[in-house]
Amino acid sequence: MIDNKILFAECCVIGCGISGIAVARWLKEYKFDFVVLEKSEDIAGLWRYRENDYGVMSFTHINVSKYNYCYSDLPFPNDCVEFMHHKHIYDYAKSYMKIHNLNEYTKFNHEVILVEEILNQEELGIEEIKFPSFDEYEKLWKVKVRDNVTGQEMTYVAPYVAVCTGHHSKPKFAEFAGQETFKGEIIHSVKFKNAKFNKMENKNVLLVGIGNSSVDAADNLVTQGDCPNVTISSRSGAWVLPNYINGYPVDLYANRFFLKQPWRISTQIFESIIKLMHGDPKRYDLNPKSRAFQYHPTVSPVLYHHIQRKRIKIQPDIKEIRGKNVIFSNNEKDEFDSIIMCTGYKVGIDFLSDDLKKQVFDEDDDSFLNLYKLVFCPKIGSSLSFIGFVQPHTGGILPISEIQARWFVYLMTKKIKLPCENEMTRNIAEFKRKVQERFYKSSRHTLQQDPILYNDEIAGFFGAKPSLLRNLNIAWRILFSSCGTAQWRINGPDKMSNAVEIVKGVPVPPLNKLMLFTVIFIFCLLIFLFALHPLLFLFTVLSLSYFLILNKKD
After folding, report:
1. Residue 194 near residue 284 (C-beta atoms within 8 A)
2. Measured at the alpha carbon of residue 168, what is the angle toward residues 428 and 192, in degrees to the nearest 5?
3. Complete DSSP assignment for 130-163
4. Which phi and psi (to 5°) does residue 249 adopt?
5. Half-sphere exposure (CA, 13 Å, Cβ side) for 539?
6. pLDDT < 50 stretches in the chain
7. Which of 161, 198, 336, 478 is 20 to 30 Å from 450 at the Cα level?
8. If DSSP codes are grouped into helix, strand and coil, which group holds residue 179?
């Protein structure tokens, strides 16, 4: 059934996952007329567990602590576990929708099939439109939608569109010589729910890739599946972090002072901590080919445990597959019943028109997005945004999506503006250059950002970057603590009266405090040296500067 029903909304939000919810919350705050279009029957995207559909594994726990994975105005209660099960995240998203009355703006089972610019009014096929004039907005967008229950099609006309479908949309598969001869089952990790559901109990299973999905699945295959042979194959190796360091969630160690150091210094410190806790990764055949801060982190509290007990084996890249036999690049051979491709995802936004795809995706490497700060296309401007298309390097996506959503909505209010097209284009080229120089070459690293530094930059565009001078009582926390998501509600528009108290409730690891005291000690030492002899002071400063320059080659 097809209908030519045409509707108007000031903004169409595509997707009702974590990012779409953030956009909807801020559109409602500023009383915009909007609609959220969600192709499935419920919210929360990846965080909604479905046995026979896209989503998390049955046992998935988030690997970012609750302090750095929540909306700024709804921190998790103190009695919540620090690393939550997917059901807790889903229930949290449901409660946030209810608190802000967002369900009434959401249309479920409404799949977007096309987004394209309306170049003239006649494109809609009707002579008179009871909508705002074309002259009122920079652009108007046609959003074609299909109701997956009734089959009805409709078209929304909107001056603003927020794409919130995320970058985990299209599973990516690796290909190996002889793969077609494999006698067992090959699936992508997105279809693996647990060893029992996937009927892999007591089988020999090979996992390709060593990201978070891989190590989580491997643990489940060992513990629930009692599999005699669980092997992880990786061409790049990995630095595997624990969930906790010295009793504190690992993401709490991220702070402005640490992240602003040349990455070669910060990675040296972090690698030393990992080696102190677990030893050199080479002892476990993890064999990372690059430094720790050149990878997206793999987090697991149990992988080392299983490797030590020989329940999980690590192998290098696959050389060839012959029937059920897999030959690795070290010429070792093993037999497997199933292969799970934990090889990540490609960014896929199929509903964009061909012209839009050419503008959004890099023509030389479609894993890069031609988006200013990974949100706006320079040639298009603020009328089309991409929210949540970031791979957080030291935290979670939720606070990033919220800060992007606020930026987008403030641009809609015309209170702020984007830079000119040329400046945005230059910024994209510089971002691409830095990614290529720093990170291990992989499509998963083309969207990498450190959440604290990234959010500071975006919040700075609208005056919400935490100010040291205006918050002297928590200045040391702003510099040496992760601070949680409420820190970008301390200053600027929509600041919260309780934001400082929420920030004070975020634990600060002793190592972060030691970092603070070390900085104070060095500062006092420099003052003492200056008082003792100016030349001695100058020599010390120059030595420190030279050391930093040697480690900052970007």
Report:
1. no
2. 155
3. -S--GGGSS--EEEEEEETTT--EEEEEESEEEE
4. -55, 140
5. 6
6. 1-2, 126-128, 553-554
7. 161
8. helix
